[in-house]
Amino acid sequence: MSITAPPLNDLLRRARLHGPLPVPARAEAAFVRTGQRDRDAHRPAQARRITRAWLRLWGASDLTDAACSTLSEIVTNAFVHGRGETVTVRLTLSDLCLLIEVSGGGPWAPKQCSREPLEESGRGLWIVDSMSDCWGISEGGLVWCVIRRTAASGLPGGG
Fold first, then answer.
1. Residue 159 falls within a domain, yes or no?
2. Residue 90 maps to a domain
3. Please, where are the H alpha helices in the chain?
4. How many Å apart are CA 134 and CA 12, to the nearest integer?
5. Quick count: other Cβ atoms within 10 Å of Cβ 37?
6. pLDDT for 99-143, tens place per residue?
7. HSE of 87 in the Cβ direction (CA atoms, 13 Å)?
8. CB-side exposure of 76: number of CA atoms within 13 Å?
């Protein structure tokens, strides 16, 4: 079974973005789960560095803060709670938005938790929700989010 996010055009509708969609830029990285907590703990930082580099290469550095914050939370969840051998990160950039997809390799699906202010964990999906225009979980446990391009980028889609 293939694990994919809904088609990009559907995600754009959910984020209330409209317009022509040119051929997007795409990149993918896979991180092998070692099963050693101290070694896997470095994977979110590695994913952020790679994402920063891709966005800089694509001329989309304006998306770096939101992309790295949301990606870090989703990748952390995939490593802490997922069960697959690899965690795969896929970025798709169009003139309108950035689509981030993270597959933890298994049927596990994250859930937003209600946490007390002083608790140390449980806020990851709240961060994803607040920093993205829409997000969701597809069949098979793939977590995706859409971050809108802003007027500051000089491209259509925001303000």
1. no
2. yes
3. 8-14, 37-40, 43-57, 64-81, 124-131
4. 9
5. 9
6. 999 987 566 655 655 565 555 555 667 788 888 999 988 877 788
7. 29
8. 16
157's tokens = 């889609």
- For 7-34, b/e burial (b = at least 16 CB within 10 A) is ebeebbeebebeeeeeebbebeeebebe
R_g of the chain computed on alpha carbons: 15
1 falls within a domain: no
Residue 2 lies in a domain: no
Q: How many residues in the chain?
A: 159
- CB contact at 8 A, 129 and 110: no
Average pLDDT for 65-83: 88
What b-and-e string marks burial along 101-137, b requiring 16 or more CB atoms within 10 Å of the CB?
bbbbbeebbbeeeeeeeeeeeeebbeebeebbbbbee
Residues spanned by the domain of 125: 8-153
Distance between CA atoms of residues 121 and 129, nearest Å:
16
pLDDT at 157 exceeding the cut of 50: no
Which CATH number do you get for residue 77?
A: 3.30.565.10
**DSSP letter assigned to residue 66:** H
Better pLDDT: 138 or 60: 60
Domain count, the chain: 1
Report yes or no on whether pTM surpasses 0.85.
Answer: no
